[in-house]
Design goal:
410 residues; alpha+beta; 6-stranded mixed sheet; 9 helices; globular; Tyr_kinase_AS
Length: 410
């Protein structure tokens, strides 16, 4: 089940007047990652001060009890529900035109599966479900299904890059294997992908003991990605590390922030720095540095701490972990490290994200200066797209708590 703290996300406060005036009409669009839908919450500026996200706790009270048709709710200054609306025009969800599989030439050799053949088993987190399906031999496969529901340029690019990178990565004992491309049923559009599922949770759980050999494996796979393939993961952290219960090896996953060479390479996100902060967190269980923006982090913040207080079970002394880490960092930080990365002998590359043809269809937006309909192209609301008859894949689903009560999720 999705962690309650991660379930809701606000797009911010929108004021129909001065935000300093407590009576100003205000609304907030809030995403519910459990039900995969957006709900508009309406009230006043008194209840919704800037950047405090009060709307998250408000929706949390009502989310599981709202009808699927509800597009907006109104609350008073105490956060109490005073009204609901099913008016489709209240829905500010943006239209997301998923790419037809036929336009994704880089994925043509991938195995595919229709979404209708995936049986939901659990909701692991935002944009990730645990599902099962029967393969061509009739054997049940349990996999993780990753998808994106947001029509935001960065999210679309991340989803495209991760899918293409995963299908290109050569088999590696410390990298989560790619499985299939997931297509919606009606028009065979690409809506996500599946990977092998490894049970047991991530190393973000401080109760999982940490072995010295896993640090060795982590540095080896980072060297392989950086120096052989020219790939920078850019999000190495305990939450993205699994331990395979069968092989007892560390497994790296979640490549949606990965860079290929200079393409989408960000300052402060290099994998060497991330390994340092990751090991520090794994040993000490101190997560304070994970909240610092990557551009403000420097490994000296933790390397300069003389004693890393152990707050996790380890199979070796802390000094053994730190000595190995320091030697590896010194090797990687030697002259030419970035040049070696940029000139990796087997760099993986893939085509840029294609433009979805759906956005070239004109739609009416307001009127021109001479009172005529103003026709434009580009991104549009889901309500506008559906009114025009454009195909729109819908993600909405019942809350997991309701399905669990009915016994529909294992």
């Amino acid at each position: 089940m999705i962690n309650p703290q991660d379930r809701f996300w606000s797009e911010g406060q929108n004021y129909r007047g001065p935000s300093e005036n407590p009576t100003t009409e205000t609304y907030c669009n809030v995403w519910d990652w459990d039900q995969l839908r957006m709900v508009k919450i309406k009230g006043t500026a008194k209840l919704f001060p800037r950047e405090e996200d009060i709307e998250l706790s408000i929706l949390a009270q009502f989310a599981d009890y709202l009808s699927p048709e509800v597009r907006a709710i109104t609350v008073d200054d105490d956060g109490l529900l005073t009204g609901v609306s099913t008016d489709p025009e209240e829905d500010d969800t943006l239209f997301l035109a998923y790419l037809p599989f036929s336009l994704c030439e880089s994925l043509a050799d991938c195995r595919t599966i229709q979404r209708s053949k995936l049986q939901e088993l659990d909701r692991l987190g935002p944009f990730v479900d645990l599902v099962s399906y029967e393969d061509e031999s009739g054997i049940s496969q349990k996999v993780a299904f990753k998808f994106n529901v947001l029509n935001k340029p960065l999210r679309l690019q991340m989803a495209w890059d991760e899918l293409n990178l995963l299908k290109l990565l050569p088999p590696h004992p410390n990298i989560l294997p790619f499985d299939r491309v997931v297509l919606e049923d009606e028009e065979s559009r690409v809506i996500g992908f599946t990977t092998k599922f490894i049970p047991g949770g991530t190393l973000a759980n401080p109760n999982i003991p940490f072995r010295f050999e896993w640090l060795q494996q982590l540095t080896e796979v980072v060297d392989f990605l950086n120096l052989e393939l020219g790939i920078m993961h850019q999000d190495i952290a305990p939450r993205n590390l699994l331990i395979d219960p069968n092989s007892h090896k560390i497994i790296l996953f979640d490549f949606d922030r990965a860079a290929s060479g200079k393409q989408r390479l960000y300052d402060g996100r290099d994998d060497v720095s991330s390994v340092v902060f990751t090991l520090y967190e794994l040993i000490t269980n101190d997560t304070s540095f994970s909240g610092i923006p990557h551009w403000d982090r420097n490994i000296d913040m933790v390397q300069s701490i003389s004693e890393w207080t152990r707050n996790r079970e380890l199979d070796s002394d802390v000094s053994k972990f730190r000595d190995f880490l320091n030697e590896w960092v010194a090797t990687r930080r030697s002259d030419g490290d970035m040049e070696r990365y940029l000139n990796a002998p087997h760099r993986l590359t893939w085509p840029e994200l294609p433009a979805a043809p759906d956005y070239s269809v004109p739609f009416e937006m307001g009127i021109t200066w001479d009172k005529k309909p103003n026709w434009v192209t580009g991104h549009r609301s889901r309500h506008t797209a559906m009114t025009m008859g454009q195909y729109c894949f819908r993600w909405e689903r019942p809350p997991q708590s309701r399905l669990l009560k009915k016994g529909k999720i294992e």
